[in-house]
Structures are given as C-alpha cells and as structure tokens.
C-alpha cells in the first residue's frame, strides 16, 4: 500500500510525501529511508526500488517542490530563492523531522542526490547513510544550461498520447543516441492528459530556474563534509563519468563505488535488478555496523 502524507516544507510550501508500506502498522519502528527523485522526476519513479526496500525499512518518497503533486512555488521576484538549493534541502529536512525518519538513509537520483548530500553535510545528526545515483560534483556551466533551454524548446508538445511521449523521449529525441526504454518510461510517467493532449506535470521554466541555481557551482566542498557511509553509483553510459565518480569516492570520508553496466542516467529504470544488487548489500552493511 502507498499512503500520501502532506508535509509543510520551507516557506510553507505544501509537499506530497508517499509512504510505501507492507501493511498499515503504526508506528513503524524500522530504519527510515527517504527517496529523492531528480529534476523533472516524481516520487513514483521510485516504486520499483520501494518494493524491495520496504521489506526491511520504512520507506518514504518525496515529490519535491514544483514536481509531482507537491505545490509549485509562485512566480515572482523571489523565484530563484523558492527554487534554490536552500529550499530543496530545507524541504528534505522538514520531511525527515516531521515524519520521524531520523537517523535516515537518503537515496537520491541526479538533482535529488545533490539535495541528499547537502542535507547529510549540514545535518549529520539526521543522516545515517547516503546513496548518490548518477550526480556530478563538478560545475556544469552556462553552456549546459543553454543546451537544456534549447532542448525544452524542441519538445513536440502536446503529445497525442502517453505512448507517443514514451517513444519520443526513448527513441526520437535527437539527444538519444540509441533507443533508451528507461528514459522513455521516466518521461512518460511525468506526463498528464490536458485538454489538447499530453503535457508535463511540471513547469519547464521552473525546472530551468531550479537547475540555474546549482549548475554554475561545484559541490566538492559539501561532499567532503559528508561523514556517513556513502555509496556512489553510476551507469556505464550515464552522465557521471568514471573518473569523476571515483574522485567523489576518494573525497568522501566513507565512500564506496558501484558501476552498473548497460545503464544510462536512469539506471534504476534501465537495470533495476543490477541497481538492487548494488544498493541492497550496502544498506545491509550499514545496518549491521550501526551503533
């Protein structure tokens, strides 16, 4: 079963958190896990992961602000603050505190991984372990941001069907070098049926604004401040290169490394079995060594 829990985030934004349970047990005494999706993602992207995690953990996935069924910050002069790093990290901290998840294991994909390690660096008392899924620590720069803006303009919206969206993002998008079913499935899940066809549930302008607040900066200093056991996972064809991933592991005081073959950026979609095989033993080790 999946239960929605509304949480109040930074500056009063209403957030939708989703708890994946085997049964309605109150309270759940098992160790907590908070799942944080990437930019343009949603909590239900973690459904496959949550199914096996909930066998031994209390599992919560968050629709981050501007995503899924959480509120969008209102437009205005403060939008760079309301969609900035501080707000996303404060939201995750609020979920951990309000739902009593600490000491929590944070599992983040892409931008969600950055949120996770920034929270782990700032509040080590709340975080027991961390899994970083295909997120770079180095700055991406202005050219990367412009590429994203140009890419958004090329989306052939609205899509006539959800399957058409799946095909475009998985096969026809010029950024796809070869068919990528995981990518297609990822984007199909963030489309909803509007009056004129299928459109994203998020604002592309807000996604660019959120990305603008972190792509120009490197995040190595905060990474080095993470004290808890941390697993860095990359897909062989993902956005995080092997050399940078291994340097991240070196910088982390308690870093581990895992690589998943035949997987791209959406590795938990591309290779769910291999993803589980990489993450589950790490979590088991954390629990056996926890005080």
Question: What order do the helices and strands come in, and which of them pair?
Answer:
Blueprint: E1 2-8, E2 14-20, E3 32-36, H1 47-53, E4 58-63, H2 79-82, H3 85-98, E5 104-109, H4 111-122, E6 127-133, H5 142-154, H6 162-172, H7 181-188, E7 191-194, E8 197-200, H8 204-212, H9 220-224, E9 230-235, H10 242-251, E10 255-260, H11 267-270, H12 272-289
Parallel strand pairs: 3-4, 3-5, 5-6, 6-9, 9-10
Antiparallel strand pairs: 1-2, 2-4, 7-8
Shape: globular
Low-confidence stretches: none
Q: Figure out the total of helices.
A: 12
Strand order of the largest sheet: 1-2-4-3-5-6-9-10
Total number of strands: 10
Largest sheet: 8 strands, mixed
Mean pLDDT: 95
Helix content: 25-40%
Radius of gyration: 18 Å
Strand content: 15-25%
User: SSE string, helix = H, strand = E?
Assistant: EEEHEHHEHEHHHEEHHEHEHH
First-residue to last-residue Cα separation: 31 Å
Going by helix content, strand content and strand pairing, the class is alpha/beta
Name some characteristics of this structure:
eight-stranded mixed beta sheet; 12 helices; 291 residues; alpha/beta
Can you characterise this structure?
The chain has 291 residues and is an alpha/beta fold. The protein is globular. The protein has 12 helices and 10 strands. The strands form 2 sheets. Strands 1-2-4-3-5-6-9-10 form an 8-stranded mixed β-sheet, with helices on both faces.
């Amino acid at each position: 079963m999946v239960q929605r829990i509304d949480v109040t985030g930074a500056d009063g934004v209403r957030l939708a958190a989703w708890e994946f349970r085997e049964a309605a047990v109150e309270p759940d005494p098992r160790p907590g896990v908070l799942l944080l999706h990437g930019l343009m993602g949603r909590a239900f992207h973690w459904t496959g992961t949550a199914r096996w995690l909930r066998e031994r953990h209390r599992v919560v996935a968050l629709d981050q602000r501007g995503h899924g069924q959480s509120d969008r910050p209102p437009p205005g002069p403060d939008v760079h603050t309301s969609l900035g790093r501080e707000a996303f990290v404060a939201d995750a901290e609020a979920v951990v505190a309000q739902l009593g998840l600490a000491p929590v294991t944070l599992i983040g994909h892409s931008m969600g991984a950055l949120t996770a390690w920034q929270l782990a660096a700032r509040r080590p008392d709340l975080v027991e372990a961390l899994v970083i899924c295909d997120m770079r620590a180095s700055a991406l720069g202005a050219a990367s941001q412009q590429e994203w803006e140009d890419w958004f303009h090329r989306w052939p919206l609205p899509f006539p069907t959800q399957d058409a969206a799946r095909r475009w993002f998985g096969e026809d998008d010029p950024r796809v070098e070869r068919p990528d079913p995981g990518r297609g499935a990822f984007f199909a899940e963030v489309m909803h049926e509007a009056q004129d066809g299928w459109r994203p549930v998020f604002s592309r302008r807000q996604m660019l604004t959120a990305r603008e607040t972190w792509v120009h900066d490197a995040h190595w200093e905060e990474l080095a401040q993470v004290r808890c056991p941390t697993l860095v996972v990359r897909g062989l064809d993902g956005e995080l290169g092997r050399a940078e991933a291994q340097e991240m592991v070196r910088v982390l005081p308690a870093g581990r490394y895992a690589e998943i073959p035949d997987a791209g950026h959406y590795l938990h979609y591309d290779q769910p079995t291999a993803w589980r095989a990489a993450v589950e033993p790490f979590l088991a080790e954390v629990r056996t060594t926890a005080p």
